[in-house]
Amino acid sequence: MQFEDIYRLEVIDALEKDHELDFKDIRSGKYLQKGICPSCGERTLYIARDKPYQLKCNRLNQCQHEEKTRERYSYLFENLSERFPRSEANPNATADAYLQRNRGFDVSKIQGWYEQGRRKMADGQWADTVRFPLCDGYWERIIDATMVAANGGDKAGIKYKMSFKSDGWMPKGMTIEKGDSVYIVEGIFHAIALHLAGYKVIASISANNFPWDVVEAHKGLKVRWVIALDDDKAGHLVIPKYRRQLQAMDEIAWVALAGKNRDWDDVYRDGQLDDVFMTEASYQGRLFVAPNPSKKAFLLHLKKPLSFFLLEFGERLFTAKVNSDELNRELNKDSDEGTTPKSREEIFDKYCDIKQVANCIPHFEYIQRDALSGDQQFFFQFNFPNPAQNCKEPLAPNSIGDPRSFSKSLLERTPGGNFEGGEKVLSMLRSKWLENALTVRALPFVGYDATSKTYCFQTFGFNNGREYMANSHGYLEIGKSGLKTSLSSLALTRGKDEEPDWFADFLEVNDMNGLASLAWWTASLFTQQIRSKQHSWLFFELTGDAGAGKSSLLRFLWRLFGRPNYEGMKPNSTGASAIGLTRALSQVSNLPVVLIESDSQIVDAQGRTTVSQYNWENWKSLYDHNATLRTVGVKSSSNDTDSLIFLAALLISQNASVDGSEAILTRIVHMHATRTGHTPARKVVSDRLYALPVEDLSGYLRRCLGQEKQWLARYFEAFDHYEQRLQANTIIQHQRIVHCHAQVMAAAKATQMLFPGWSDQLMEKLFKHVESRAIERQQRVSSENPTAARFWQIYHYLNEKVITYTDGEGSHDETRETLNHSPDRTLIAINIEHFHNACRLAGQEVIHATQLHRALPQSSSHTFIEIRKVRSAIEKRPLNCWVFRKSGRE
Q1: For tag attachment on the chain, is the N or C end more exposed, with fewer CB atoms within 10 Å?
Q2: By its UniProt entry, which InterPro entries does this protein fall under (predicted)?
Q3: Where do the domains of the chain lie, and which CATH numbers do they carry?
Q4: pTM confidence score
């Protein structure tokens, strides 16, 4: 009743107040209905009031979402030390709450069996425990999950230097009488569950221990010792050994198994620990200890008589073919004649033909389906009699289509697997494998999957702020669905829980540029959510003087996300091919892509230095939501295409600032690092900061993703505020510049909550810094490009030539254009080769053609129109010219 009350009162209250589920129908006496399903987003979620254990979506065919309320509202069942602290009136208050809420026990029935204790954790903290007397000491379980984590994952322990060898724990007052059945389990909580359900029980504390002293004390009383250890690998290794030892002592030995991934207290908490369940557990135990395939076939046939079935024994696969007619005739014959019947098992063996069809057991695990291409693979675990041969292998769909293909696949993909079954056997296997088969979506990238709203990495992931660890099959189990990344070349280290005690050093070393970079870097984890509402996300540019520390900063930021020894990739031909760059841009989602050292210097024959930049105009579309990186045709008879979508955030880092059109420059928020303030004292701090290992820093990624909703709420709330403040500055006139710099400030405001040392005064100082960068950007796009300005200065100097001529009216001066080939006096048409030749003859600077090709399209002195053939007004022949409209922009 105590456990039911927790659900009836507290869980129901949590459900009714859960804004994410938002149940519209809560007045019904039986159900909460019309809630928003976390999986499909439809108002199809419901739960029973009298048994509010599991949320379900009633779209049974399309969704099938299920979620235990005990897991959703885990705070009601875990970390109880603060909610239920011990007191003088009840020194066991926390232990009582744990046993009631976490284990589902009625503590009134086990009063005096335990007490609340304290245990020192691996990190030096002290944790509350529930403690049970055991032998000459005690066994105790740590109560709070946070303290379990602080103890390196170790949940329980015994008193120092005590021993429980050959002994165990029994419920107080329990006696073992002649003919009793006594269950031997591993844990004390397992034993309490069985005791409360009405069974006699002993806890051995460990699979490697058995209560031989108790057995010896009751030898000869015909006690049925039921070995009921955990149904896992450790239990399977020792159960046969203990059973043989009991039989050697002439004791009755049975086996009972609760089922994989389920303990006896789980069964008790689910209300299923009764005689029906125990009968089935004993049957599963008999199957487990069957000495040969014939015995196992007999047991299977007893429960479900079939004329042909498959069975597994000793990690080999067998078929059992039963002559049912003859078997039934002989069984009936013995019964009718009244003669002494043969053993039923002997008769069964006579009419059952058992044949090995595979020297291993193929355990089908799941179907992996590529999220983009739709290609599928079938993943299997192959278990052999020799465990060293065990392996996991994916098979193509056609590999299980017919016996020959399956046999060939085993020979090719496993160390010695062989299949000799025919079409009938494979058909039975295939039917079993594909019935309710789990399909795991395989992402060709690392990071955020918008479809499931899940962050997916190789070993862990996050969904709605909750962390999930990859299971033994390598995928994340999110509700009824599975998700994994098929990308293996980019693995992020899962860091431990961290406190940002490095923040003060980070601020000392990197100042406002560092705060802005950290804010943008953190926001890169949420770019798709931001783009979906604001339609774009800025490009971040980080430049710096040599030795200013931009590379160290980038490497540090990468370690915060679990990627050590990495800065970025070169986008030009020396760093990546066109296809390689496209793949690099598409292999992450809601993570940064850092492009470095795109600029290069060229020294010509006259010793002049020319900086050649990467053409960033190619990627300006990546600023927008769902920008396409590359489109290719699908191999089909239709006109279908596949497109790679840019799902990441772009950071540009180089020595020289990006140069380009107004369209690209206004998409960029630019920070420039200098060596100002570098001192020996700061170097000490810098060395300490950048020496921190990735394991100590990469917990920052988990911390951010665990607060996804809170971060985004703060971001969108702060954006309007900072946008209005920047718009109020009359110098900043370009709306895109306002938008991008407001995004950085909103990201900073959201990131502030992660750092106790990030004060409002620092926020205001950062705003002034970002505002100054916005002003600089506005001034830059409003002024002429320096290269274009120099070009027009030389052009106007060389273009006009004054000619003096004399006629009947006297002498006259006439100004003629020497470089403008356009016959239209409203236009300027310049042939670059002609221009360069004129510069050389006049001793003027020859501006490199590459620089002109980048600078002239952004000219503000005269508006660039196009490059085309023009019939020269000077040379009276067609020339390839750059054409401009005179007198600036339209």
Answers
A1: C
A2: TOPRIM_DnaG/twinkle (IPR034154)
A3: 2-76 (no CATH), 93-158 (no CATH), 181-289 (3.40.1360.10), 295-357 (no CATH), 359-437 (no CATH), 441-485 (no CATH), 503-780 (no CATH), 786-885 (no CATH)
A4: 0.75
